[in-house]
């Protein structure tokens, strides 16, 4: 396995029409979960990825496990819970402003994941551990699971990749959220924050100040995502801005950050330089904006080749 990740994936119901959920009667069924999105994105780019989680022993759990397995991700470490259901959430589509999300995940099977659900040898054989700031906010047991995974990764010399992925709705206390996410950031090797997240966590606005503060915490590499402007790559040696790719028509912004993470890790695993890995990440994130759906927009090498006219050497 190249990359192992852990976290909750839920069934996502997306209305067929825009407007308040009160007046919506038809939905399409999808899956949604940052960590499994990254695993699927990696698989589409030829990287061996494994996803650790818990699902209810129900039809929705069957659907999620089957879907993720079908995308080439190893799901051998997914456990099924007979007592607690698979989580679900709904998207409310609007013509003006951002879509709203309504979670029904309290008491879900994944929220009962704990440190005993982790197989040390399974994690140990990977090269990277990918985690997000969502999972430790789900419950005390999930918090323990994340820290145990970090402990295992450090013991076996895996690189820890951390995307803060702030979700206020999963945290009861904003200050506790900041404290925990910054602590995990300090234990990570690679940090992938978005600019808006960084402003919340550090209460800074300048990109260079943000990068330097994050680097002071401990990560070797910080990649600060700044939307269509691309990303800033920060290391102990230098800070560089890597231009992004302008997307004329954004179809769906959900999943772009996960595509970015998958692209960046795929680049590193394929031997790209850090700068080229960020360029690949920018390309993957831009492509994801052009397709509707959380995972449907995650690109293959062929997608990137077609989208960018094979001018950037991404398929070398």
Automatic annotation (TrEMBL):
* Keyword annotations from UniProtKB, A to Z: ATP-binding, Kinase, Nucleotide-binding, Transferase
Q: What is its EC number?
A: 2.7.1.178
> Which segments constitute the Carbohydrate kinase PfkB domain?
2-300
GO MF term set:
ATP binding; kinase activity
Database matches in Pfam families? PfkB
* Keyword presence, ATP-binding: yes
Please state what class of enzyme this protein is: transferase
Please name the InterPro entries in this protein's record.
Carboh/pur_kinase_PfkB_CS (IPR002173), PfkB_Carbo_kinase (IPR050306), PfkB_dom (IPR011611), Ribokinase-like (IPR029056)
PANTHER family hit by this protein:
HEXOKINASE FAMILY MEMBER, PSEUDOURIDINE KINASE-RELATED
Q: Which family does it belong to?
A: Belongs to the carbohydrate kinase PfkB family.
Name of this chain's protein: 2-keto-3-deoxygluconate kinase
> From which source organism is this entry?
Defluviitoga tunisiensis
As recorded in Swiss-Prot or TrEMBL, the protein's gene is named kdgK
């Amino acid at each position: 396995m190249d990359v192992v990740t852990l976290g909750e994936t839920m069934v996502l119901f997306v209305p067929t029409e825009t407007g308040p959920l009160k007046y919506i009667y038809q939905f399409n069924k999808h899956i949604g979960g940052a960590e499994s999105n990254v695993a699927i994105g990696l698989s589409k780019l030829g990287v061996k990825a494994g996803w650790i989680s818990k699902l209810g022993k129900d039809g929705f759990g069957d659907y999620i496990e089957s879907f993720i397995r079908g995308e080439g991700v190893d799901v051998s470490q997914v456990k099924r819970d007979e007592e607690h259901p698979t989580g679900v959430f709904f998207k409310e589509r609007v013509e003006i402003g951002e879509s709203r999300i309504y979670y029904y995940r309290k008491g879900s099977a994944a929220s009962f994941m704990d440190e005993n659900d982790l197989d040390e040898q399974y994690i140990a054989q990977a090269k990277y551990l990918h985690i997000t700031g969502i999972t430790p906010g789900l419950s005390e047991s999930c918090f323990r699971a994340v820290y145990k995974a970090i402990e295992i990764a450090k013991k076996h010399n895996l690189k820890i990749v951390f995307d803060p992925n702030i979700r206020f709705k999963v945290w009861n206390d904003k200050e506790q959220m900041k404290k925990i996410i910054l602590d995990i950031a300090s234990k990570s090797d690679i940090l992938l924050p978005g600019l808006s997240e960084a402003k919340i966590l550090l209460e800074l606005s300048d990109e260079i100040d943000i990068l330097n503060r994050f680097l002071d915490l401990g990560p070797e590499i910080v990649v600060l995502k700044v939307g269509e402007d691309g990303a800033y790559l920060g290391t102990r040696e230098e800070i560089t801005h890597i231009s992004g790719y302008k997307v004329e028509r954004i179809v769906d912004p959900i999943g772009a950050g996960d595509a970015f993470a998958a692209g960046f890790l795929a680049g590193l695993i394929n031997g790209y330089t850090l700068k080229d890995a960020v360029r690949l990440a920018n390309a993957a994130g831009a492509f994801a904006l052009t397709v509707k759906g959380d995972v449907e927009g995650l690109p293959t090498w062929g997608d990137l080749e077609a989208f960018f006219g094979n001018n950037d050497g991404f398929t070398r």
